[in-house]
Design brief:
Length: 295
């Protein structure tokens, strides 16, 4: 068993490093990023409760602590969610805010992403509320409100340089998904299509709606097409509808995730950015690719 230690805000102190090695009877520490990321072999692994206590304790100092299987970990497939994962916003919330009903829609989104409301039910309710929004408003939302999650461009560039295939699979909308996929260098993308007529949203989406099951199907279909196994994939997401693919992938990462998702997902990044997914795969900072070097 490997223990991964990632501290993006400040280098791990000598005291914390020594305490971690003592707690897990660690050996063969390997530095990945000058004190901010390292991993080591755990010869002793505490009970689940004790590990979660250690994770919570070190989390207070900005450290993401995770346990990983030993062996070659660099995945050949990346399956990524979009909203609040590859970008910092929920597109539906930003569209609603543009329409003047942002607070109401954001509450529905939060409940759905935390698993307290069915994804399809929440999708249809929220889309109905922005019926009549001009299509031109979507361009404004993307240009003025959408920002990329830090580290995403480096994650894509590094994995693609290593020969990995990258897919953006979102419960969001194709209008935004295709633009994000193009900007970051994804090989393919899937999302839901907003229906419209006469230059305005009709308040509905095309069927079938891409949700939790469809994300799992995408992982399995893309893996099979590439003659890979889901075990060869790393998946990342933050919401309840991502849990299926996070559980099915060889490495499922809950990134700044909702509480219900963290409770179900063993690998969690709460402090780091998307480059943490590279450290989890065993890449060192010196192996990161420049975004301009992507294929």
């Amino acid at each position: 068993m490997l223990i991964s230690v990632i501290s993006p805000m400040a280098p791990v102190t000598a005291r914390d490093r020594a305490e971690l090695l003592r707690l897990f009877d660690g050996e063969s520490p390997r530095d990945l990023d000058a004190g901010r990321a390292f991993e080591f072999v755990a010869r002793h692994f505490p009970e689940e409760t004790a590990f979660e206590e250690a994770r919570a304790h070190f989390g207070k100092t900005g450290i993401d602590l995770n346990r990983l299987s030993e062996g070659f970990r660099q995945k050949r497939l990346l399956i990524a969610d979009m909203d609040s994962t590859m970008i910092e916003q929920e597109c539906i919330d930003e569209m609603a805010d543009h329409a003047g009903i942002g607070a109401h829609v954001a509450k529905i989104t939060a409940r759905a992403m935390d698993g307290k409301l069915g994804f399809e039910e929440a999708m249809l309710e929220r889309v109905s509320l922005i019926k009549g929004l001009p299509l031109a408003a979507l361009d404004e939302v993307f240009a003025e409100r959408i920002t990329y999650m830090p580290g995403g461009d480096v994650l894509l560039a590094t994995m693609r340089r290593s020969g990995a295939h990258c897919a953006l699979v979102s419960g969001g909308f194709t209008f935004f998904n295709e633009r994000v996929a193009s900007a970051l260098g994804f090989d393919e993308h899937r999302a839901n299509a907003l229906l419209h007529a006469d230059g305005r949203l009709s308040g509905d989406v095309a069927r079938p709606i891409l949700g939790r099951d469809a994300k799992v199907e995408a992982l399995e279909e893309i893996s099979a097409r590439l003659e890979l196994s889901p075990a060869d994939a790393i998946a990342v997401g933050d919401g309840a509808n991502d849990l299926g693919m996070l559980e099915r992938a060889g490495m499922g990462v809950a990134l700044h995730a909702k509480p219900s998702v963290q409770a179900e997902c063993d690998i969690r990044i709460n402090h780091g950015d998307l480059t943490a997914l590279l450290f989890l795969q065993g890449y060192s900072r010196s192996e990161f690719a420049s975004p301009s070097a992507r294929n």
